[in-house]
Amino acid sequence: xxxxxxxxxxxxxxxxxxxxxxxxxxxxxxxxxxxxxxxxxxxxxxxxxxxxxxxxxxxxxxxxxxxxxxxxxxxxxxxxxxxxxxxxxxxxxxxxxxxxxxxxxxxxxxxxxxxxxxxxxxxxxxxxxxxxxxxxxxxxxxxxxxxxxxxxxxxxxxxxxxxxxxxxxxxxxxxxxxxxxxxxxxxxxxxxxxxxxxxxxxxxxxxxxxxxxxxxxxxxxxxxxxxxxxxxxxxxxxxxxxxxxxxxxxxxxxxxxxxxxxxxxxxxxxxxxxxxxxxxxxxxxxxxxxxxxxxxxxxxxxxxxxxxxxxxxxxxxxxxxxxxxxxxxxxxxxxxxxxxxxxxxxxxxxxxxxxxxxxxxxxxxxxxxxxxxxxxxxxxxxxxxxxxxxxxxxxx
Length: 396
Description:
This protein is α+β, with helices and mostly antiparallel strands. Among the domains are: 1-30 and 138-163 and 298-396, Alpha-Beta Plaits (2-Layer Sandwich); 33-85 and 112-134, no CATH class. It has helices spanning 7-26, 33-58, 67-77, 80-83, 154-163, 166-174, 180-189, 198-213, 216-224, 228-241, 243-259, 280-316, 341-353; strands spanning 114-117, 129-132, 144-151, 261-263, 269-271, 323-328, 331-337, 369-376, 379-383. It starts with 6 loop residues before the first helix and ends in a 13-residue tail after the last strand.
């Protein structure tokens, strides 16, 4: 590890993380058992209806969870691949919520509500659309509350640091009080900030990440619901405005070709031998993975460092008892005693935002942390700096 420059990473991030993960995994998360059983029954009934509909369309009964049988029905009997030759058919599969006795994969629980048509065997009006929020079934212990902390726009901030794009650097240094993607939209499209709509903002986010991760004009067009020509124009104008992003992408790919790997901000390596593949598709995939890892791998480094520093601070505190419940991408979820929320929230925000000044990082952009709290994981409300929860819920 010393030869490959990985010893410091191992000692400063990986080893200290072991006891943190052990403590986190040794604690369970409380669930609203009644709500989980009701939701499981509801989804089970709806899945049964859908299975019956599938049998009707296929003209025969089959095991819908069997890949072989499903493949034979879709392509052997119904020949869907011949009906829509230009479209990529999605992968198929069915899932249902586990029972209260089964382990739950926290990473796979959707943050977005799920809408389903009410099953016929449930009371109420037929055709009613029901909304299920999977995260709402996870609740804090008595006398505690959940507190979620996540780095705001972390990938865009890391991209700005790595690329050194002057326009993006200016954006983060001067417009921190405003919504960054709205300001970016105003800057890119040259329209007043007050005229930026939510749709404009979401479009900008998709263009940004398409440009970085090499999604291509066809995929961006499908994502935005526009023509390929319009998507190509979006990408072209964006990369003309922020020229250093394109330079960063090209430099990252070139270095990967030269060394055979790509490194994160803390020196973590990902080997990508297919960057030299003769097959163009395999080579292009490796190139996208290289840029992706440079940004997302660096975000993961920051998140691990935040976990270690917050854990250490709590361990050293004579009063704080907060514990880390889960880590989901750039979000950390804690369970905190209710009277300790203000003190712990200040500690978390200060600790995580201070990472920008760590000597090993020396980020060119400030880090910003969003906090939210609530009794249920699915109903968290934002915490403003130095204040309690605001009135509106967040979708963390």
